[in-house]
From TrEMBL:
Chain segments annotated as transmembrane: 161-190
Location(s), subcellular: Membrane
Name by which UniProt lists this protein: (wild Malaysian banana) hypothetical protein
Family, similarity comment: Belongs to the UPF0496 family.
Species, as recorded: Musa acuminata subsp. malaccensis (Wild banana)
GO cellular component terms attached to this protein's record: membrane
C-alpha cells in the first residue's frame, strides 16, 4: 500500500478520531506513540518531503533548460554543417576562434547557474532519522498488536473456563437440592436450592458483561493499532522514495558532469560529445520520468501525513 488516505480499515476521518480517542486515552503505550508521532516523527518527515519537493522543482527546471539547450544544439549543428560544407566547397580555411555552439554553451551556463546541483542541500540525514523513528514506532505497534492478540486469546480461554466452571457448579447445586429434597428436610433444602440458583443466575449476566467489556476494550485497541499502522502513511512508500532519490541523484549528477565537461573545455568537439551523451540520457527518459514519478510520490505522502497529523491531533486533544 502506498501513501494513501485510506485503507481496508477505513479512511482517517474526523468521526473515527472521536470514536477512538477514549480507546487511546486508556492505553499509556498508544498515547505515548501518538505524542511522539506528532512531536518528532511526522514533522521531521514533512520537512524532509518539503525540502525534497524544492529539489525536484529545481531538477525539473534544469531538465527544461537542457531540453532547450538540445534544441539550440541541433539548430547550431545544422548551421555548422552547412557552413563547413560551403567552406569546403569554396576551399576556404576552417573557422578560427568562434565556437559554433555559442548559444548552446550559454544555455548550459544557465543550467549550472540555476539547477546544476538541485540535491546538494537536501538533508538526507534528517529524513533518515525521522524514518528510523517511524520504523521503531511501527515495531512498537506490531509488538502491541501481538500483546493484544495474546490477551484476547487468554480472555477467550478464561471465559470458556469460567463458563464451564459456572455450569458445573450450577448443576452441582441442582443435584444437591434433589438429594436433599428426598430427605426429611425437603422444604428447607428446596428453599436453599432455589435461593442459590437464583443468586447464581443473577450473577451470571454481570460476569458475562465484565468479560464482554474486557474483550471489546482489547478489540477496540487492536483496531486502533491496525489503523495507526495502515491508515494514513506507509513506511514502505517512504523507503521507496529514499531509494528513488538515490538513483535520481546519480543520474542527474551524470548529466551535470557532461555539462561541466563542455563548459570546462569550451570546444566544439567537447560540445558535440557532451550534447550527444545528454541527448541519449534524456531520450532514454529515466531522469525525466524519475523526477516526475518521485514528485507524484512526494505529493501523495505529504497529503497523507498532513491528514494523519490532523487525525492524531484530534485524538491527542
Amino acid at each position: 500500500m502506498g501513501c494513501s488516505t485510506s485503507s481496508k480499515h477505513g479512511s482517517l476521518r474526523e468521526d473515527h478520531a472521536f470514536d477512538l480517542k477514549p480507546v487511546i486515552s486508556r492505553s499509556s503505550k498508544l498515547s505515548r506513540i501518538v505524542a511522539d508521532l506528532l512531536k518528532c516523527v511526522l514533522p521531521g518527515i514533512r520537512k524532509g518531503l518539503a525540502d525534497l519537493d524544492t529539489c525536484l522543482h529545481h531538477a525539473l527546471l534544469g531538465l527544461r533548460i537542457l531540453e532547450a539547450a538540445l534544441v539550440c544544439f541541433e539548430e547550431e549543428d545544422c548551421k555548422k554543417e552547412t557552413s563547413d560544407y560551403r567552406r569546403n566547397k569554396k576551399r576556404k580555411k576552417p573557422r578560427n576562434g568562434t565556437n559554433a555552439y555559442g548559444l548552446t554553451l550559454r544555455n548550459l551556463s544557465e543550467f549550472k547557474l540555476q539547477a546544476g546541483a538541485p540535491f546538494i542541500h537536501l538533508d538526507v540525514e534528517e529524513l533518515q532519522s525521522a524514518l528510523e523513528k517511524l520504523e521503531g514506532m511501527m515495531d512498537a505497534l506490531r509488538g502491541r498488536k501481538r500483546e493484544i492478540e495474546e490477551r484476547l486469546r487468554s480472555t477467550n480461554w478464561w471465559r470458556k473456563a469460567w463458563s464451564l466452571v459456572f455450569t458445573v457448579v450450577f448443576i452441582g447445586v441442582l443435584v444437591c437440592s434433589i438429594v436433599l429434597a428426598a430427605s426429611v428436610v425437603a422444604p428447607v433444602a428446596i428453599t436453599a436450592a432455589i435461593a442459590s440458583a437464583t443468586a447464581m443466575k443473577a450473577v451470571e449476566p454481570w460476569i458475562n458483561s465484565v468479560w464482554d467489556e474486557r474483550k471489546k476494550a482489547l478489540e477496540d485497541e487492536e483496531e486502533v493499532v491496525k489503523m495507526m499502522r495502515d491508515g494514513g502513511f506507509s513506511l514502505l512508500e517512504l523507503e521507496s522514495i529514499r531509494s528513488i532519490v538515490h538513483k535520481l541523484r546519480n543520474d542527474y549528477d551524470a548529466l551535470n558532469w557532461d555539462v561541466e565537461f563542455m563548459l570546462r573545455l569550451e570546444s566544439e568537439e567537447a560540445t558535440m560529445v557532451g550534447m550527444t551523451d545528454i541527448r541519449k540520457k534524456i531520450e532514454n527518459g529515466d531522469v525525466t520520468s524519475g523526477v516526475e514519478r518521485l514528485k507524484s510520490h512526494v505529493d501523495a505522502c505529504a497529503t497523507a501525513i498532513e491528514r494523519a497529523e490532523e487525525f492524531l491531533g484530534i485524538i491527542r486533544s
